[in-house]
Amino acid sequence: HDPGEEEEEQEEEKEEKEEELRDFLLVYNRMTELCFRRCVSDLGYRLLSQREERCLDGCAGKLIRANHRLMGAYVALMPSIVQRRAARLEDGTERTAPDEAEAARAAPDSSAAGPSGT
């Protein structure tokens, strides 16, 4: 490696890590907002009530489990999506839009667990 290539690789790695952190924080902030709105009803007290704590624990746990299931489906589907994109590139028919809709259609039905989650 010449120093220029190594520096470029380090910069790309840094940007990738920053993007991962940004994505994580977006998910975390959205989860926090959803659970807060759903579970916290009385802002007149400094501490959470037992009911609010139970609700928040359940809400956060449910969202984390759902996120893990979605990530598992995404990881399982990724090789076939990459393979199809590569085939399209070879054929010259690659679309400019990502195949997210395709992945969503192929993902296992997560609604089968019902409204209460797992």
UniProtKB/TrEMBL annotation:
Residues 15-74 form the Tim10-like domain. GO terms for biological process: protein transport. InterPro entries: Mito_inner_translocase_sub, Tim10-like, Tim10-like_dom_sf. Residues 104-118 have a biased composition (Low complexity). Residues 1-20, 87-118 are annotated as: Disordered. GO terms for molecular function: metal ion binding. The keyword Disulfide bond applies. It is found in: Mitochondrion inner membrane. One of its GO terms (cellular component) is mitochondrial inner membrane. Heterohexamer. Belongs to the small Tim family. Mitochondrial intermembrane chaperone that participates in the import and insertion of some multi-pass transmembrane proteins into the mitochondrial inner membrane. Also required for the transfer of beta-barrel precursors from the TOM complex to the sorting and assembly machinery (SAM complex) of the outer membrane. Acts as a chaperone-like protein that protects the hydrophobic precursors from aggregation and guide them through the mitochondrial intermembrane space. This is Mitochondrial import inner membrane translocase subunit. It comes from Phasianus colchicus.
